[in-house]
């Protein structure tokens, strides 16, 4: 299948660590003043060194004007779906329609259980809980101002009326790595997002197959599902700069290397959304290089390639 025809999106991730609060504000302003579309924040409430993601996101909404704000991804077992719908609609109104929701079933089961999260005891139950969560969230956002009910094994709402209505239809991104969740992302999500350290490039063909299956099963076009990659890595500023990492999936290379890698992800694997997570070096400098040198060139080449393809069709 050809490259995803959706226009590319770019963004940066913000670390919610309490020790990096000043950097969070700086990064958000840098993104807002650039031409990238997204600022994202991870959500790990059980980490005592992390600020609450939703509160931080709301604060950044008041300090930015243009860039979209996204959870990457929200820990759903710790945030009830009905309240999540209320919170999402509220922040979307406050931000002028700039909210995007990344949602996940959560990966740290012990931490979620310790905090009283709704966590099933088996993978099948965790999948069912997330499916019910998604159904309630979508239903309440789509029916703001009208009664909505849902009864499941893990979640239920009874004749609730959600309001206010969001300022726009909030895109829902699903963080997924397993087959059932990937099919669900393809059938129900506006986009799929994962990190390079969790899904390696040689696994992306299978990921795309499952996303496509999910889309087709729901009567959707596979090319309408955005495919996002959280780019964990380092942009080298000189050839002698080299870091050693224990974990696979961390990108490392020059600006030219990064440009080539992202173009390959787009052409070969249909990725259309790229979010930079700097992991070493001067991270503010890394982000500036990504915003000023990597993104403009990748965007230009993707758009040029798309225009050329259209001329030949």
Report on this model:
- Helix content is 42%, strand content 19%.
- The protein is of the alpha/beta class.
- It has a single domain (9-312), classed as Luciferase-like domain (TIM Barrel), CATH 3.20.20.30.
- Helix 3 (81-94) links the parallel strand 4 (74-75) and strand 5.
- The radius of gyration is 19 Å and the shape is globular.
- The two termini are 15 Å apart.
- The mean pLDDT is 94.
CATH topology annotation: TIM Barrel
Strand arrangement within the widest β-sheet reads: 1-2-3-5-8-9-10-12
What is the overall shape?
A: globular
Percent strand equals 15-25%
Helix vs. strand class: alpha/beta
Which CATH architecture? Answer: Alpha-Beta Barrel
Helix content: 40-55%
Question: Can I get a quick summary?
Answer:
The chain has 313 residues and is α/β, with parallel strands linked by helices.
Describe the structure using short key phrases.
12 strands, 9 helices, single chain, alpha/beta, 313 residues, two-stranded antiparallel sheet
Task: Note the topology.
Layout: E1 9-14, H1 21-33, E2 38-41, H2 53-62, E3 68-71, E4 74-75, H3 81-94, E5 99-104, H4 109-114, H5 123-142, E6 147-151, E7 156-161, E8 172-175, H6 179-188, E9 191-195, H7 204-217, E10 226-235, E11 251-253, H8 255-269, E12 273-278, H9 283-312
Parallel strand pairs: 1-2, 1-12, 2-3, 3-5, 4-5, 5-8, 8-9, 9-10, 10-11, 10-12
Antiparallel strand pairs: 6-7
Helix pairs in contact: 1-9, 3-5, 6-7, 8-9
């Amino acid at each position: 299948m050809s490259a995803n025809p959706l226009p590319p999106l770019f963004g940066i991730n913000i670390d919610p660590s309490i020790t990096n609060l000043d950097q969070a504000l700086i990064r958000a302003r840098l993104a807002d003043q650039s031409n990238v579309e997204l600022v994202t924040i991870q959500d790990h409430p059980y980490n005592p060194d992390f600020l609450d993601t939703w509160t931080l996101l709301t604060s950044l909404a008041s300090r930015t004007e243009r860039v979209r704000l996204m959870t990457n991804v929200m820990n759903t077992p710790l945030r009830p779906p009905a309240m999540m719908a209320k919170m999402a609609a509220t922040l979307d109104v406050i931000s002028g329609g700039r909210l995007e929701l990344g949602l996940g079933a959560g990966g740290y089961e012990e931490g979620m259980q310790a905090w009283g999260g709704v966590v099933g005891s088996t993978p099948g139950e965790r999948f069912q809980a997330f499916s019910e969560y998604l159904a309630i969230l979508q239903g309440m956002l789509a029916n703001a101002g009208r009664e909505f009910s849902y009864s499941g094994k893990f979640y239920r709402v009874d004749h609730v009326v959600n309001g206010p209505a969001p300022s726009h239809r909030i895109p829902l991104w699903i963080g997924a790595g397993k087959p059932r969740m990937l099919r669900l992302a393809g059938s129900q999500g506006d986009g799929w997002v994962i990190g390079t350290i969790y899904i390696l490039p040689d696994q992306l063909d299978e990921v795309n197959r499952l996303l496509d299956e999910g889309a087709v099963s729901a009567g959707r076009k596979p090319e309408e599902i955005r495919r996002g990659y959280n780019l964990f890595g380092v942009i080298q500023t000189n050839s002698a700069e080299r870091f050693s990492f224990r974990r696979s999936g961390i990108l490392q290379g020059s600006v030219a290397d990064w440009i080539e890698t992202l173009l390959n992800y787009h052409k070969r694997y249909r990725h259309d959304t790229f979010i930079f997570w700097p992991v070493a070096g001067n991270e503010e400098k890394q982000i500036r290089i990504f915003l000023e040198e990597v993104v403009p060139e990748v965007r230009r080449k993707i758009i040029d390639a798309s225009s050329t393809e259209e001329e030949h069709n």
